[in-house]
Every structure is written in structure tokens, then in C-alpha cells.
Design goal:
The structure holds 2 protein chains of 2 kinds. By secondary structure, chain A is mainly beta. Helix content of chain A is 0%, strand content 53%. Chain A is built from no helices and 11 strands. Chain B is mainly beta. In chain B, a hairpin with a 2-residue loop joins strand 6 (54-58) and strand 7 (61-66). Classes of the chains: A mainly beta, B mainly beta.
């Protein structure tokens, strides 16, 4: 069974640009969560989607947005990039129907903002 | 008070020893508890989960849950240098479907 995949794996952008990251969950998983990880802040929750609906949201500005498609694939978008957005962006998937479900992470997209 | 707290470490143990990693949580409604291992530059990897009070063993790993005291522990027996990583504790609460992570404990196993 294939794991969670994320594309691209690495990205370099400049301030003010926007970026779109993609995540494909494990087959059969309907929930996708996004996290930002930086050395100083640890793993910060961005948002979670289940059946194309945003079910949970973290405390990030509106520049961070996401969506989920009918095949459970998800994208997140960051507009007007700032230097502080440089981080490892992780996607994780679960079956989604229960808070007992195990959550599995993709390899991440490392974003560098210059 | 943070929702999920872990000592950042580093926790240094000699090879072959037992490493004990601890995590406390603030929400008494928490119902699922997960331990992840994260190597430097890599994504977190799920190694254990526990739902009920008591111990759960999987190979060299044992997860311990005490809901009355609101803590969950991970014991690693016969620690190996390859166990050197950051260990993240995550907690979910009924009905929220949101995984709350601690900041992780860095473990160093000394050869």
C-alpha cells in the first residue's frame, strides 16, 4: 500500500510570491491534515480536511489556505510569501471517521523563501 | 499551560539501556495517544499508539498510559544508536479529529 505522497519535495521562492503544495493520502484515507514545522516552533497544525470540507483550523493567517478534492487529494496554498514561511510542510492522512485513527505523514515539502 | 508537554531534552542514555520518554496532557477528554519518531530532516514516523490505561508492548517499545495522572510514556528497551531521534507525543480528543503534538524530546543513544 503506497504511503502519503507530497509534491514537490523542495521549493525555493522569493518574498511576495505564492506557492501551492500537493498531498495524496493513503488509499482509503479521507482526512488530510497539514502542519508547518520549524526548528523554533515545532509542529504547528494548519488545517484538516475531511470529505472536501475543512473540519479543523489552526491559528495561521488567511494567507494559508487549503482545499481537498473528491479523490481526497489535498492542496495547500500560501500567498504573499514571507521569510518566516520557510519551513517543512507536512501532510498527514487518516481514515478520518474516528479520533482513534492513526495518522501517517508524508515526506514533507521543504519550502525556502528568499 | 500547553496542551501537550514534553521535556525537550536531549535525553542521553548509553547503548543497551532503557530510555524513558514522558508526555503530559491537559485535556481530560483526551482519548488517543500516539508516539512518533522523527529523524533529523525526515518526517515523523508512527511507532506506537495506545487508547487504554496500562501498558502496550511492541518489540522493544512499550507505551504506558495513565489517564488519572494525565501522562503517557514511551519506554525503549535495549536502546541502540539508531534510536537517536526526536520523539513526538500526539493526543486526540473525542469528536475533534485534531492531533495535538508536543514539541518533542530529543533522544541521544551513546555507543
Amino acid at each position: 500500500k503506497a504511503g502519503v505522497t507530497q509534491t514537490p519535495r523542495y521549493l525555493i521562492k522569493t518574498r511576495g510570491q505564492q506557492v501551492t503544495l500537493s498531498c495524496s493520502p493513503i488509499s482509503g484515507h479521507r482526512s488530510v491534515s497539514w502542519y508547518q514545522q520549524t526548528p523554533g516552533q515545532g509542529l504547528q497544525f494548519l488545517f484538516e480536511y475531511f470529505s472536501e470540507t475543512q473540519r479543523n483550523k489552526g491559528n495561521f493567517p488567511g494567507r494559508f489556505s487549503g482545499r481537498q478534492f473528491s479523490n481526497s487529494r489535498s492542496e495547500m496554498n500560501v500567498s504573499t510569501l514571507e521569510l518566516g514561511d520557510s519551513a517543512l510542510y507536512l501532510c498527514a492522512s487518516t481514515r478520518g471517521g474516528s479520533s482513534y485513527n492513526e495518522q501517517f505523514f508524508g515526506p514533507g515539502t521543504r519550502l525556502t523563501v528568499l | 499551560q500547553k496542551e501537550v508537554e514534553q521535556n525537550s531534552g536531549p535525553l542521553s542514555v548509553p547503548e543497551g539501556a532503557i530510555a524513558s520518554l514522558n508526555c503530559t496532557y491537559s485535556d481530560r477528554g483526551s482519548q488517543s495517544f500516539f508516539w512518533y519518531r522523527q529523524y533529523s530532516g525526515k518526517s515523523p514516523e508512527l511507532i506506537m499508539f495506545i487508547y487504554s490505561n496500562g501498558d502496550k508492548e511492541d518489540g522493544r517499545f512499550t507505551a504506558q498510559l495513565n489517564k488519572a495522572s494525565q501522562y503517557v510514556s514511551l519506554l525503549i528497551r535495549d536502546s541502540q544508536p539508531s534510536d537517536s531521534a526526536t520523539y513526538l507525543c500526539a493526543v486526540t480528543t473525542s469528536g475533534t479529529y485534531k492531533y495535538i503534538f508536543g514539541t518533542g524530546t530529543r533522544l541521544k543513544v551513546l555507543a
